[in-house]
Amino acid sequence: MNLFEALGSEGKALREKLEPMMKSFPCGASVLPLSLAPGEALIREGDACERVYLLLSGRVSVIISRPRLSSYTVTEFRPFEFFGEYELLAGKNQYLAEVRAVSPCRLLSFSAGTYLQWMKSNPEFFSERVRSIVGALLDQAVNERTRHFLDAPGRVMQVLLRAYEACREPQESVRLTVTRAEIAERTGCSVRTVNRVIRSLAQAKLVDVTHGKIRLDAVQRQALLREFDLRLQ
Question: What burial class does residue 201 get, using C-beta atoms within 10 Å of its C-beta: 0-12 exposed, 13-18 middle, 19+ buried?
Fold first, then answer.
């Protein structure tokens, strides 16, 4: 189907959000709407690099496999971010990482050729994508440098603080939606190590754990942030 048909069933607010971005999308190019369930993989490491995706709702994680070690989450994408473009623009024939849904997701998918045509036909879109990609890569590089100097507790704290900041009501006590397995993937630690660190944080009153669920309020966030900062010194 074309872009008009793909967006026809979407709400007015989403269409208005996408309109400035999509106005120069190649006329008549085919678009494929997709839905993902939590935990479902959209891209596997080593798959042929043939399509680019635009996330409309939900969250996806980018995961790199490490031989004889646990997998590691490099970053997450949120609406309205593109993914699948890094390898394409680098001239790679295969995707270098797995992309997996963290929450229920809806996406638009189009061919690599359509994406390249879109960039070539619109200098403004091209410049915006270059800025976005370079900015994301710089952020990842900074995160990797920070992670390199952190011990396991510091890495877990970093993930918990980011999960808190991602909540829509960060001033209140919130239940963090990140799971122990996700924390392990994002930190490169084992689930056993993550559990040990969380128990230690709970004993220090830096987080609350009820029925296995992690909660964090504004006061605890400040205390956890101070403890995290000490580990960076």
Answer: buried
Phi, psi for residue 47 in degrees, rounded to 5: -60, 150
pLDDT per residue as tens digits for the range 155-166: 899 889 888 877
**Pairing relation of β-strands 82-83 and 51-57?**
antiparallel
What is the model's pTM?
Answer: 0.70
Tokens of 181: 């397995």
Chain length of the chain:
233
Tally of CB atoms within 10 A around 89: 16
Q: Rounded to an integer, what distance in angstroms lies between the CA atom of residue 155 and that of residue 150? A: 6
C-alpha atoms less than 13 angstroms from C-alpha of 88 in its C-beta half-sphere: 21
Q: Which two tokens stand for residue 11?
A: 């709400």
